[in-house]
Amino acid sequence: MIEAWWPKHPPIYDIHKSYADNLRHGPRFNFTIPKRERPPQDEWSSFLGHNVASKVGVPAGPLLDSKWTHLASELGYDIITYKTIRSQKHASHPLPNCHYVDIHNPLNPKQLPSQTTILTQEPKRLSELSITNSFGMPSQDQKVLQEDLPLAIKHVMPGQVLVVSITGTPSAHTSFIEDFKNIALFAKDCGAPIVEANFSCPNVVSKEGSLFLDPKQTFEVASALTRALNGIPLILKFGVFPNKELMREVFIAAAKAKVHAISGINTISMEVKTKDNQPALGPNRLKSGICGSAIFPIALSFMEDAVSINQQEKLNLTLIGVGGVMKPGDIDTFLEKGADCVQSATGMMWDPLLALRYHSIHKKNKSL
Question: Is the separation of the CB atoms in 131 and 98 below 8 Å?
């Protein structure tokens, strides 16, 4: 039996250091990786035209460059997403970027609190671990990415696939759609087998963070991307919708734009304060994304609605479950709800052995 990594070992991303430090010196992992007995190829699954050994992966966020994606590959994550890239170098928000938050119980999708406070001590169990994160979608420049992305693609094993996450950057010189299209073409030229467009980051203040809430813009931007990618599968990353009616409109718009898959959810935006009621991330970042175990019910609710809409409207979209996946059983729960595959971000950072633990349990159950 493979034990959970945390709390005996620290998370592979050091939340007390800057994004640049983690990019330069991480991931923080020095451990003999348990052997994985991979299933025979006739038991592999199809994911957007690629055969994968399992339906388990990592979403955009934790895998900062090819060192990180290579580790994820070795750790048994088979659908691996490279951290969101932009058309130009973009700095991370300054420290602090992450805090443990005082949310020990799963959030109710119908009664979300408007704010939370940070914890001064680490939680004791993965089932109680939730954090706030605020990075602002940083990106390396294209000269670095031109060398690193092909390395990340090269290092995945048979039965695995790399997804490259992208976002557009509004500027005075290039339209938002044109910039989004340019970075899609860049990812394509670097050899990306699959591209994911992030339409839903809660840690930016400009339009790239809320694109998924507008059906018309979703269609226009996604159409430009699918035309540019010319057959390379496109995933759209969505957040939580205020109602199912809007969600249905946006899903239909995405399908009409010839999008192949939807990933959801992103983090939950919430005001985060210190114990003395001050902004935890400073006066310019009153809100930030909540992730970890607390958002699992909200992510499941999103998936239930996504499956329902996908079936009712006959959209034929591949659905990727993300949000609050902290233990092997959470993966099974997502799959039982109808997700085509499942990815873990916070869970993977605090328990990098999560995928291997999942594979080990399923192999054991299969042999009984």
Answer: yes
